[in-house]
């Protein structure tokens, strides 16, 4: 059955099946969890189950024309809203267009479904426009929202949705997806899945630039910090700087773990010696404080702060932490 095509999230799938079986499906769901764990795929399976023409208990069936059409992204009653534009947001114009379509009867489905991927990316105007529809849901419409940042969602939107928690995927599941579905080298897949924090998209991104990632780790663990950081250039694009900040934060996490004497919890196992050396020479409280500062710099990138400035500040914090 199609539910089995969604890896992990057994509790979430069980909840959705109970709602379908009891015919008590809320007007709106909010799928909450980290990036890259399958929230949108799970929501899409729910959209198919709501409109599948198979017998109860067999939905979605993967066989009927409705299931096939929704999976291909071409069903006229299933609408996908994604953040877009320079600000990477879901704007009020898109929501108004969606609500205009929802004012009409479904074209040929049991219910119309809106899948809004990234509820935290709704502008304030868009969220307020959506709110009335969530407060007074139509019997012929359902809203499926996803978010990786629940705290950034409008509280009134959250309060009107049934929350569905989607946690990180087990490392062995991520490894399986990388090797069997994406053809990754087994050794790279093993390491990337361990470092992915349960996110398939994170693991794929790491595997796709594995050599560059290893060079960054060598820089983070280098003994000659001045040489590694001052003679080599810094990344300049927003994406590259974001990657650097994430890698620095993950490294500091392992430094703190090494300092706590828990080597079995270290993610970068192949760099254990460098991590232990830094842990012995570093103040752990400052290590944690620096990690939070790096997270703040990561957020500033989304506020259109210069990537070059952010990279320079991150370098200075790193050199200061290690006493270079």
Highlighted features:
five-stranded parallel beta sheet, alpha/beta, 3 domains, single chain, Rossmann fold, Zinc Finger, Delta Prime, domain 3, 324 residues
Number of helices, where a helix is a run of at least 4 consecutive DSSP H or I residues: 15
The rough form would be described as: elongated
**Major sheet summary line:** 5 strands, parallel
Low-confidence stretches: none
Instruction: Please report the total strand number as a whole number.
Output: 5
Give the proportion of residues in helices.
40-55%
What fraction of residues sit in β-strands? 5-15%
Q: Could you say which structural class the secondary elements and strand pairing correspond to?
A: alpha/beta
Mean pLDDT: 91
Q: Strand arrangement, largest sheet?
A: 2-3-4-1-5
**Radius of gyration of CA atoms, rounded to a whole number:** 23 Å
Structure description:
The model has no long low-confidence stretch (mean pLDDT 91). The protein folds into 3 domains: 164 residues, Rossmann fold (3-Layer(aba) Sandwich); 39 residues; 112 residues, Up-down Bundle (Zinc Finger, Delta Prime, domain 3). Helix 2 packs antiparallel against helix 3. By secondary structure, the chain is α/β, with parallel strands linked by helices. A 5-stranded parallel sheet has the order 2-3-4-1-5, sandwiched between helices.
Brief synopsis:
This protein has helices spanning 10-22, 39-51, 65-71, 92-102, 124-135, 155-159, 171-181, 186-195, 200-208, 210-220, 225-230, 238-259, 272-281, 284-301, 307-321; strands spanning 28-32, 78-81, 112-117, 141-147, 162-165. With 324 residues, the protein is an alpha/beta fold.
């Amino acid at each position: 059955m199609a539910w089995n095509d969604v890896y992990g999230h057994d509790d979430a799938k069980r909840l959705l099946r109970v709602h379908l079986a009891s015919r008590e499906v809320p007007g709106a769901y909010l799928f909450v969890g980290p990036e890259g764990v399958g929230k949108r795929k799970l929501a899409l399976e729910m959209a198919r189950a709501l409109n599948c023409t198979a017998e109860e208990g067999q939905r979605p069936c993967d066989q009927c024309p409705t299931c096939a059409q929704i999976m291909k992204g071409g069903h006229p009653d299933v609408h996908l809203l994604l953040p877009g534009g320079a600000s990477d947001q879901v704007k009020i114009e898109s929501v108004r267009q969606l609500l205009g379509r929802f004012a009409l009867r479904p074209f040929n489905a049991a219910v119309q479904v809106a899948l809004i991927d990234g509820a935290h990316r709704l502008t304030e105007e868009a969220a307020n426009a959506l709110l009335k529809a969530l407060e007074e849901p139509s019997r012929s419409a359902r809203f499926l929202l996803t978010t990786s940042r629940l705290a950034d969602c409008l509280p009134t939107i959250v309060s009107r949705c049934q929350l569905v928690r989607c946690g990180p995927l087990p490392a062995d599941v991520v490894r399986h997806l990388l090797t069997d579905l994406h053809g990754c080298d087994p050794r790279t897949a093993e390491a990337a899945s361990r470092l992915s924090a349960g996110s398939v998209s994170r693991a794929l991104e790491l595997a796709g630039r594995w050599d560059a990632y290893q060079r960054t780790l060598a820089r983070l663990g280098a003994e000659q910090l001045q040489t590694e950081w001052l003679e080599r250039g810094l990344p300049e694009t927003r994406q590259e700087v974001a990657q650097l900040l994430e890698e620095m934060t993950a490294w500091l996490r392992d430094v703190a773990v090494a300092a706590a004497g828990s080597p079995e919890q270290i993610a970068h196992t192949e760099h254990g010696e460098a991590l232990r050396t830094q842990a012995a020479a570093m103040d752990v409280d400052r290590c944690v404080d620096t990690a939070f500062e790096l997270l703040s710099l990561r957020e500033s990138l989304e506020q259109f702060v210069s990537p070059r400035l952010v990279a320079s500040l991150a370098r200075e914090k790193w050199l200061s932490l290690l006493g270079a």
